[in-house]
Specification:
The protein is an alpha/beta fold. The protein folds into two domains: about 140 residues, 3-Layer(aba) Sandwich (Rossmann fold), CATH 3.40.50; about 180 residues, P-loop containing nucleotide triphosphate hydrolases (Rossmann fold, 3-Layer(aba) Sandwich). The protein has 14 helices and nine strands. The strands form two sheets. A five-stranded parallel β-sheet has the order 3-4-5-2-6, with helices on both faces. It has a four-stranded parallel β-sheet with strand order 1-7-8-9. β8, α12 and β9 form a beta-alpha-beta unit. α2 runs parallel beside α4, α7 runs parallel beside α8 and α12 crosses α14. The protein is globular and about 60 Å long. The two termini are about 15 Å apart.
Length: about 350
């Protein structure tokens, strides 16, 4: 028996304290470590990244007075405050970032880029700096600059945290000096982008997407009239959110992305009827956040309609946000595989 709910009927509320308490790795990365990471032997940079992060982790909490020294004497530290993992999709950057977080002493924070910008929106910039300045480590996953406001905001936040002696670690699909390219007039904000770049030592990780490494192609979408039968087979005894795709898209417009994690709280699987190609940028960017939260919680998907590699329009897949969309397609494809484990009877 399946307990059926509907995401489009949920309007979650979340407090500032709940946001702060949520700054830790998702259940998918709740028990990872450097030793559980499996470097591709054909990609030496992966093993080298493990060593670099282990060495960086050893410095966390060992220079508490550095920030004060810099403020009093105006001298720069001998090493940069942060480490920045640059690489393609599915090479294990989040696994390694979470491993660093698990190995480091607290207090510490782990969140996606959008979760930090949401925190500033909830607390204010100054209170966010005050809250995080006492931390030994701040980890920022999926670092991407979507607009000029984010560029200025994160430039200031990273600079002030580094000045306070906080160690920074980030992952992205884009080198820090190239953040914002193709999204807005990045040249007009080069100073802020350079300030960001100056906080980090860059570690490159090469490799192919592990979600596709040696795995079969993504499963084809189901027919809409097959969904109920497959849902009973895949999710017996679990709670499943069943939504018409268009209705879900419309509902997300009224739910702040900071609430998407709570939106899917208690959901073991999702079923989407009649998935269609998204053609509006704002809608697509919201849906990327939902895809990330579903992947964080390892929520399997059953869907009818267009396949996930057609979820975003061709213009989007070649535009300034293409890396976001490719990551979302990769993650949704992985969840769709998990949603079709059993053969239909």
């Amino acid at each position: 028996m399946v307990q059926i709910e509907q995401l489009a009927a949920r309007t979650p509320a979340i407090s500032v304290d709940e946001i702060l308490k949520g700054f830790h790795p998702s259940p998918r990365f709740g028990d990872v470590s450097f030793t559980s990471y499996r470097p591709d032997p054909n990609q030496p940079s992966q093993a080298e990244a493990v060593k670099a992060l282990e060495a960086f982790g050893a410095t966390v909490g060992s220079s508490d007075g550095e920030g004060l020294f810099k403020r009093l004497f105006g001298k720069k530290a001998s090493a940069r405050a942060g480490i920045y993992l640059d690489g393609g999709f599915g090479v294990g950057k989040t696994h390694l970032l979470a491993s660093l977080w698990h190995s480091a002493p607290g207090p510490k924070a782990f969140g996606t880029f959008v979760e930090y910008t949401n925190l500033v929106g909830a607390l204010s910039f100054r209170k966010t700096v005050e809250a995080l300045s006492s931390y030994k480590l701040v980890c920022i996953d999926e670092f991407e600059l979507d607009d000029p406001g984010d560029t200025v905001l994160m430039s200031r936040l990273m600079r002030e945290l580094a000045d306070a002696g906080v160690k920074l670690a980030a992952t992205s699909n884009t080198l820090p000096g190239s953040l914002g390219e193709g999204r807005f007039a990045a040249v007009d904000f080069q100073r802020e982008i350079q300030v960001l770049a100056d906080q980090f030592d860059v570690v490159r990780i090469d490799g192919e997407d592990f979600r596709h490494r040696g795995l079969p192609a993504a499963p084809a979408p189901l027919k809409t009239d097959e969904l109920k039968h497959r849902m009973q087979a895949e999710f017996d005894g679990q709670t499943v959110a069943v939504d018409d795709f268009r209705g879900l898209i419309d509902h997300l417009a009224g739910v702040h992305p900071s609430r998407y994690r709570k939106l899917i709280d208690g959901i073991d699987g999702v079923v989407w009827r009649d998935v269609e190609t998204i053609t509006e940028q704002a809608v697509a960017l919201r849906f990327v956040v939902l895809a990330d939260r579903l992947y964080d919680k390892d929520v399997p998907i059953l869907a009818s309609g267009v396949p996930f590699d057609k979820l975003f329009s061709e213009d989007m897949m070649t535009g300034g946000y293409m890396k976001k969309y490719f990551r979302a397609v990769s993650r949704l494809t992985a969840l769709a595989r998990e949603g079709q484990v059993h053969e239909p009877s």
